[in-house]
Amino acid sequence: MDSNHQSNYKLSKTEKKLLRKQIKARHTLLRHEGIETVSYATQSLIVANGGLGNQVSRNQLLLVLEECGLVDALLMPPNKPYSCVRYTTVEESKKAYDTLNGREIVDDLGQKIILYLNFVEKAQWKELGLQALPPGLKVIEEIISSEDEKMLLESVNWTEDTDNQNFQKSLKHRRVKHFGYEFHYDNNNVDKDKPLPGGLPDICESILEKWLKAGFIKHKPDQLTINQYEPGHGIPAHIDTHSAFEDEIVSLSLGSEIVMDFKHPDGMTVPVMLPRRSLLVMTGESRYLWTHGITPRKFDTVQASKGHKSGIITSDVEDLTLNKRGIRTSFTFRKVRQTPCNCSYPLVCDSQMKEAPASFPESDKQALQLEQDYVHRVYEEIARHFSSTRHTPWPHIVEFLKALPSGSLVADIGCGNGKYLGINKELYMIGCDHSQNLVDICRERQYEAFVCDALAVPIRSGSCDACISIAVIHHFATAERRVAALQELVRLLRPGGKALIYVWAMEQEYNKKKSKYLRENRTSQGLKEEISNDTSVQELLVKQLPNVGNQDSAHSVSSINDFQDGGCNSRNVANSKLPIHTNRTSFHSQDLLVPWHLKENPGKDKRVEPFGPLGSRDPGPVFHRYYHVFCEGELEAACQTLSNISILQSYYDQGNWCVILQKV
Ligand SMILES: O=C(O)CCC(=O)C(=O)O
Ligand SMILES: [Fe+2]
Ligand SMILES: [Zn+2]
Q1: Of 230, 235, 335, 336, which is best to mutate to test ligand 1, by the most ligand atoms within 8 angstroms of its C-beta?
Q2: Beta 449-451 vs 428-433: how paired, if at all?
């Protein structure tokens, strides 16, 4: 496998396979991560599959890498399925390339992982695109002089009373003042019909003109919010409401520097230093998709070597120090939007949010919409975190797969992160899922998987010896669609072929025994579910968005949801709002929304805030998944409507109803 000697001898079959996989890894890195590998030997290697996102820990990987020489640096980016290692010499990295390519290791969860190594020019965060600012974000240093800074600061009169036209308020964590339009923190929007008299302060006009001329900004703002933060103050992570303001949002830092945190919905956090007299410009993705916020604390963790220069604070623990905060006053200039937002981030765009579809579907179209908004979109968003919680295969399913004759062709319809795809190496297993991100995870694990709809699986009829459908059918929103999903499984089976189906049970206590789901009702921090059944749909919509919510904390919950279901024999009432389930409690309705609390940076790869105050982390966004939980006998009854099948077995397993059927 030595890159320099490849052509000098004939490759064996195993070597060819290895080479194919290695090239595949190279393509995936380039396509998905923009990482360019090189074909000549260097000191640095990208280790595909050996990443924190694949549950491979630093120590574990180091142990393997150090077999080949002295590791100078090992970069393990959060959530990524790869790492980057730099050896002290090229010889050592060549040795690693030659001996560790195709090496099987066992991850933290006991799953086997195969490493594929490729050379890269440099082992650098930057090279991996990890040191980049969020796309569309710029910090322009020294944008105004010290004199202008002084003048601007002196122009703010904080002693005016609240009757003043330019609304001023002391929020919990800072002082604010608005010009042009008032910003309402109760609905996070501006009253577009009620501009404040006086417009922006005169003193800003000439500065804005200068910025426009110099090309620092493209549009003239008509709204200004002045925030003043004393040490210990902050602003919660938020996205400025899309429908309220245009794309470009700029913020001038005065008086003192501060670190602002930007967060991508997938959990990546980028702390950015905003020096005093600098202008932060947020456009595009950084304005629409990433949240920004300032953690309330008295010290910021900054890079010692960089002083107060703008840019990302990396987690390079050898270069971190503390910076005492001073009083920072920011001038945030925005342009009020007069037409709805049509950005390309509909999931976080209030203009593009459909009316709450979270009610019991009355038509097939509504059912589809409900599944799209409360199943497909949610899995796409939570895929990485979801996957990190799905590792232990359930014993009865393993038993089913192990009992199949070797060489069987088995389809896992709704395979999730692929946890069953590698259970029995004697089978040909193929997985499919609606979620591209989950399918990507399967592929990273070297499983065969593709994206499709479980109602239209692109596999020839009668070609499978077996199928499994684990925790999938309960996500279909009408009885007809659930039967259609079962029908599709049967279509794939050859005569004599078997399908194993698991759905979530309404009965979480069976034969006087509580299911594992109920038993895990721990109230420890992190597992505690704070959403109760009286959450309103409006609230739900807010919560469905990752942290787009309030820039100030007060927000009332009005209870418009008094949906009560009578249990298994009662039909759902049309137009009923779907209740939000309280996790780890019994079900009170068959059709419901189950909250998913997205953990930022799941697993061990949390960004460490070495000096941050304890408990200052955001709770993270909450998503809701739609479920139809099955009553006893319901899955069997649905199966019985299918032709050409016989039910071999039906049973209850840990809170699920299960059927094994056979095509006759
Ligand atoms: O203080 C800042 O720079 C940002 C303020 C901000 O994000 C806001 O008011 O929406
Ligand atoms: Fe903001
Ligand atoms: Zn938008």
Answers
A1: 235
A2: parallel
ipTM greater than 0.90, yes or no? yes
Select from 461, 438, 470, 466 the least CA-distant residue to 451.
438
Rounded to whole angstroms, how far apart are CA atoms 243 and 352? 9
How high is the pLDDT of residue 515? 86
DSSP 132-193: SPPTTEEEETT-S-HHHHHHHHHH--TTS-TTSSS-EEEETTEEEEEESSPEETTTTEE-TT
Tell me the C-alpha to C-alpha distance, in Å, between residue 419 and each of 111, 115, 383, 579. 9, 19, 13, 30
- If you measure from the C-alpha of residue 343 to the centroid of ligand 3, how many angstroms do you get, rounded to a whole number? 4
CATH class of 137-346: mainly beta
- In this predicted structure, the answer to whether residue 416 has a pLDDT above a threshold of 90 is yes
> Mean pLDDT, to the nearest integer, of 644-655?
95
Closest CA to 19 of 91, 128, 9: 9
Which superfamily does 6-128 belong to? RRM (RNA recognition motif) domain (3.30.70.330)
Instruction: State what percent of residues in the chain have pLDDT above 70.
Output: 81
pLDDT at 122 over 90: no
**Ligand 1 closest atom vs CA 227:** 1
Q: Give the residue from 280, 260, 272, 273 showing the smallest Cα distance to 308.
A: 273
Over the stretch 250-289, which tens digit does the pLDDT of each residue have? 999 999 999 999 998 877 889 999 999 999 999 999 999 9
Give the pLDDT confidence of 67-80 residue by residue, as tens digits: 999 998 888 775 67
CB 45 within 8 A of CB 120: yes
Q: pLDDT tens across 329-353, in order?
A: 999 999 999 999 999 888 788 888 7
Beta bridge partners of 334: 223
Give the environment of ion ligand 2: residues with CB less than 5 A.
240
364-509+633-663: CATH class: alpha beta
Quote the CA–CA distance of 385 and 600 in Å, as a whole number: 8
Out of 173, 225, 256, 328, give the residue to mutate to test ligand 1, the one with the largest number of ligand atoms within 8 Å of its CB.
Answer: 225
Residues of the chain with CATH 3.30.70.330: 6-128
pLDDT tens by residue, 238-261: 999 999 999 999 999 999 999 999
Outline which parts of the chain fall under CATH 2.60.120.1520: 137-346
**pLDDT tens, residue by residue, 176-189:** 999 999 998 877 88
